[in-house]
């Protein structure tokens, strides 16, 4: 087995996934990226300054495809996987009554089932490289306190948080770390998408109009590195995420009032 550590990042074609991939590559890790966007993955790998990289086109909703992706990556990386960054995800906003069945099911399948499938598929690989191997899940500030206008998305990210906490206990005796990062609004291409099919206003505009900060994606990449190498179960990223975490723990009544007073669902 090679001594160079290896990380596989889903959603690696852009945004947070790309930033994590580049951050670990700069620190001499063997980096693999998985996504449905083949061109985007090629661009991510093209930004790396060394040749220790791999890409695999697959859909995280396909359980069997996970096995093929991880087997291929491990073979390329010298029969090891030290970290899986379970990062692939999509946004969905707007009032619940505006969300179509198709949108709801797609968000649940990618953001929640995709994370479960990834964890299940990578377990034997992480057990092999333990102690010190890590499952890193991308949750969200929306997994700290339910976000008005994003009930489905919030549900998936609360789920990712629960998966992280459950597996942290389940895999402890195996020496596998399980961690999550909880970013707020991050400067990625996802902000330029409409929150749902019925909206004609992108998420970035709504965030800016609400006076909320947009955090540089590089901060998330550093948080991912720190989470993999640290002892903290959940790592919040950005002022909004940190404020929500503080309010949910220490001022739940005030946070509830503020949330209800400011609620204007994304996409309305």
Automatic annotation (TrEMBL):
Keywords for the protein's UniProt record, in alphabetical order: Oxidoreductase
PANTHER family, A to Z: OXIDOREDUCTASE SADH-RELATED, RETINOL DEHYDROGENASE-RELATED
Organism: Qipengyuania aurantiaca
Domain of life: Bacteria
Family per record: Belongs to the short-chain dehydrogenases/reductases (SDR) family.
Protein name: SDR family oxidoreductase
Keyword Oxidoreductase assigned: yes
InterPro entries in UniProt: NAD(P)-bd_dom_sf, SDR_fam
SUPFAM superfamilies: NAD(P)-binding Rossmann-fold domains (SSF51735)
């Amino acid at each position: 087995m090679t001594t160079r550590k290896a990380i596989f990042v889903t959603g690696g074609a852009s945004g947070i996934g790309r930033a994590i991939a580049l951050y670990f590559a700069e620190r001499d890790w063997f980096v693999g990226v998985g996504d449905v966007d083949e061109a985007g993955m090629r661009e991510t790998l093209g930004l790396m300054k060394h040749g220790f990289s791999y890409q695999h086109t697959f859909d995280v909703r396909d359980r069997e495809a996970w096995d093929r992706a991880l087997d291929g990556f491990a073979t390329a990386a010298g029969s090891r996987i030290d970290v899986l960054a379970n990062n692939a995800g999509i946004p969905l906003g707007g009032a619940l009554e505006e969300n179509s069945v198709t949108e709801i099911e797609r968000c649940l399948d990618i953001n929640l089932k995709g994370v479960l499938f990834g964890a299940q598929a990578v377990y034997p690989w992480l057990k092999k490289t333990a102690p010190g191997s890590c499952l890193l899940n991308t949750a969200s500030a929306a997994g700290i306190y339910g976000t008005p206008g994003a009930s489905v998305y919030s549900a998936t990210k609360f789920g990712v948080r629960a998966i992280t906490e459950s597996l942290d206990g389940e895999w402890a005796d195996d020496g596998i770390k399980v961690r999550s990062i909880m970013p707020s609004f991050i400067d990625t291409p996802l902000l330029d998408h409409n929150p749902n099919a019925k909206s004609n206003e992108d998420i970035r505009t709504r965030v800016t109009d609400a006076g909320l900060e947009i955090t540089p994606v590089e901060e998330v990449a550093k948080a991912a590195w720190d989470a993999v190498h640290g002892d903290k179960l959940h790592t919040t990223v950005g002022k909004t995420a940190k404020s929500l975490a503080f309010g949910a723990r220490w001022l739940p009544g005030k946070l509830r009032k503020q949330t209800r007073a400011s609620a204007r669902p994304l996409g309305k």
